[in-house]
Amino acid sequence: MNERNSPYFRYAYNALIKDKGVNIALAVLLILSAFLMVTGSMVMERSIGSVDQLFEEAKPPHYLQMHKGDYDPDALTRFASDHPEIDAWLVEEMLGFDSAAIAWHRPSTGESGDLADSLIDNLFVTQQEEFDFLIDETGAIPQASRGEVYVPVAYQQSFGLQAGDKLAIRTDTGIHDLRIRGFVRDSQMASSLSSATRFLVSEADFQELGRAGGGTPEIIAEYRLTDPSLASEFQRAYEGDKALPKNGQAVTYQMIRLVNAFSDGLVAVAMVFLSLLLIAIALLSLRFVIRGTLEEEVREIGVMKAIGLPDQAIVSLYLSKYRVMTLLACIIGGVLAVIASGLLTRSIQVNYAQAPVGLTTILVPVLALLSVYLFVIAICRGVLRGVRKVQVVNALVHGSTLHERQTARHAKRQARRARRTSLASYRGRSISRRLAFSDLRAESGQWVLIPIVFFLGTVLMTLPLNLLSTFESPRFVTYMGAPESDVRADLQFSKDVDSVRADVLSSMRSDGQLTQVRVFANELYEIQEGEGWETLRVEVGDYSGATVEFLEGGRPEPGQIALSVLNANRFQLSTGSKLTIRHGGESATVVVSGIYQDVTSGGHTAKMQGEVTTGASGYVIYANTVDRADPAAVAAQYSERFPAATVIPMREYVQQTLSHTTGAFRSAAIMSFIFGIGVAVVITGLFLKLRLTRERRKMGILSAIGFSMGEIVAQVKGKALLTMAAGTLLGLGFVATGGESLVGLFISLAGLGIANLSFIPNLLLVYVAYPVILVGAGYLGAVVLTARLHGADKSLWLRA
Amino acid sequence: MPHDDHVMLESRDLAKTYYSTEPPTQVINGVDLIVRKGEFLVVMGASGSGKSSLLYSISGMDRPTSGTVFLEGRDLTSLSDVEMSRVRLTKMGFIFQQAHFLSNLNIRDNILLPAFKAAPKEKDAAVARVDAIMERFGIAHIKQHGITQVSGGQLQRASLCRALACEPSILFADEPTGALNSSMSTEVMEALTEVHSDGTTLVMVTHAPACAARADRVIYLRDGRLVDSRQLGRWSKEQSTQREDDLLAWLRKLGF
Ligand SMILES: Nc1ncnc2c1ncn2[C@@H]1O[C@H](COP(=O)(O)OP(=O)(O)OP(=O)(O)O)[C@@H](O)[C@H]1O
Ligand SMILES: [Mg+2]
């Protein structure tokens, strides 16, 4: 059969050409849905492929158990010989250093910094021989020579490290220098959810670091099994044996895989979710369109039925249009997805491995597209089944898709409404407005779509914006665990840090541009946690002046300590709790004075009242500028005089510290703005287009009676404006009330160190500009759509 | 040309072309027409000859492609949309083959709508006038009914009431009996004849010779051109059969 000449093809072609606006809007929705669905599934496939590839190369253990402190090696040997399902096993020794104790330096440019913003444990290890290898960027198993270190790829990215940079590790007995030779991927700890990461050093350096002190020794007992699926059974056996070391985390192969795939697949999951949402919107619109078409063409359907065409054939005829449209959308969405997924999987490829292209690489997106196509077509077919209910007589005589009983019910409802809203008693001034309102009431079931879309659009657009403006606000420093001041100087540990501190302090105190110079020392304390000791970063200094805002409690007096939210949660402490800490071999018991929010240093900080002595791992100096001094200029001046110190205006510090987060929020804000406006305009346009088609008769009547086209169009625009504004206002109401707690919940779950977020919104943008833009865009759509009505021959709307 | 006081409506060299088709269809082709005050004019012709197009072009619902239309000496084609709709509201009434009503208003509200629109400050007077009109045409008892709860004949009489609500000078009707059975059809034609005898000018399109026989004059349209016209004189019930036979003979000659 010649496809082009088939009646279905011709019907589809004509139908697509006829209603261009509606069809384009529908196609856009479908393309977006298909695009997101395929991109999501491709990113997932690539992530899983990358993880698998890395696993292939690195051979992670099937079961691992972490442990801190002493253990009995003989028990491990005995256990291994008792369990024949063990293929291989090893005990990896590691040395943990706090990220504040690791600094980097680039000899070629003099740039430097530390890793303090990283909130995960840094474990120094040597390369293994049998399994659980650290893999370099080429997929090979590197060996570190003396004086060299391989750094995790995650750090390469977040701190911008390069091969050749120097790494300085602060030990109890001095600074141990290493040169970065390259970067490694870690199959166990690659996930962004992992709480630790591994550095590869030579055996000699490992021994030296151990002797130097300052690191926390840890071990992992690792097992490869003959069959990975035995892992959970094996775990039970291991945990049942009292003699084995096990005071740390235990992880099975399946969990490593799951965590790896999940954490970086989160974006993909979000995309698939968003795609499902869009498909739902697209299907709602499709249903609306198809119903409208059926009602409009009911006489044709009646005729087709009368000449004996089977229902199935009529359905296929109408379906052909949507088949063509959905197919096109899937193809376009698919092509776009190939481009987008390449960009999105780049970081996954770096953290894991280059996934090989295989059959599934092709199959997954194709299956995703196929399922979108089949699902949309199935729903369309379902709606089109309405054709079956059309009765020939009713269709031909009354032009109604309803059968008799429905017609009667419909008539009764209409009559009741007509009686209730009597125009005869109306004494208001604008009959046009009155008509628009009674229309809205009568057709509320249809119009409600607009407020819903605008409500969602408003919420979608303003929440990320509120987050962004909150994080960018200078007032945000109080969330950051830092006093509100103008200039901040950071001194990282170095051999002469104490003398630099003294110099900076004395020149600041004698500087007429600066007042209220305060210094705080960053000390690494240890806190007792169960059987072992954990590192606790404490800022020691004078808190008697203005300091940070406390969520509960207040500033620390001598013998007290204030904790950040994340630390309070981690150690399950609240105001008034006692805890034991030690520093330099001396233990002390202190009381928690209060809890504050902090987003610096990964959110895990503490504050203690005390004298700033020498020998701290670093110092922070805050100062205020006097009236007319420019903080930026002062900061620049000090940076130049003291190259070892990082002196920046507080405002810039906020921006820098949060640049990752605000960057993400900014992208989210931009994306959601475009998405919100786009979807709102497309849906409004689609809705009005269909509404206008269905209201042609009503418009014809009004025109014949003597309403001008301007008045008739104003009714439509008024209804649109009213419903759009109502939805937007509801959205703003929600954002102002529930939105904050919703986002707050999300933020506290994200572990940023903020438990109690109050928006610092850009009022003008959120409550004036955004709503005006959103409603304005929708209104513009209405203006464009109704503009065409003016030149029309109105009588055609009334002729059958 | 000076305006003749006896002329209600006049078209000169009127043409209408639809551009939505390929090639464009010219459906009215240079029609010169004069409708006198108080006249009952019927337009006849084969299906597709352009009767409706002519009716809506001279009544300002649609814009003619070229030519001019005068209503009581006023050039309608030069009016703005707002002015034209004011003319439709106050000077014209419309009746269609299908009774088109707003479905969420009851019968009386539908009829009140143009009256309220025309004189928003005199709503009480409008209500009284509309009630009187409905009484006159025998539909006062269905005032509160919904539009789907009355018969076709009642609905078409309601259309007539709405068309008369603002006391128009001219009434346009496009096959007002086309969708009705013969008894309902007579009902509606009786009402129209009554309106005509009150002095309202009437222009009606119809296929039914029995309806056309009530006119003062019948014109015949073919392919958008006025090909013939026939003066029938004042209608009287007694002569109805004879007038109808006479009209039929004329129509047959024209190939109707
Ligand atoms: N919107 C339109 N676009 C193109 N052509 C049209 C349109 N409406 C009507 N026509 C054509 O114009 C011509 C005249 O149509 P019109 O409706 O005026 O005829 P009519 O005499 O009223 O016919 P009927 O007796 O069937 O009502 C017909 O040939 C018709 O096909
Ligand atoms: Mg017609």
TrEMBL record, chain A:
The chain crosses the membrane at residues 21-44, 265-290, 324-345, 357-380, 447-468, 668-688, 729-755, 767-789. InterPro entries: ABC3_permease_C (IPR003838), Membrane_comp_ABC_pdt (IPR038766). The keyword Membrane applies. It is a multi-pass membrane protein. Keywords: Cell membrane, Membrane, Transmembrane, Transmembrane helix. The keyword Transmembrane applies. GO terms for cellular component: plasma membrane. Residues 273-379 form the ABC3 transporter permease C-terminal domain. It is found in: Cell membrane. This is ABC transporter permease. It comes from Nonomuraea turkmeniaca.
UniProtKB/TrEMBL annotation, chain B:
CDD domains: ABC_MJ0796_LolCDE_FtsE. It comes from the Bacteria. Keywords: ATP-binding, Nucleotide-binding, Transport. GO terms for molecular function: ATP binding; ATP hydrolysis activity; transmembrane transporter activity. Residues 9-248 form the ABC transporter domain. Pfam families: ABC_tran (PF00005). This is ABC transporter ATP-binding protein. It comes from Nonomuraea turkmeniaca.
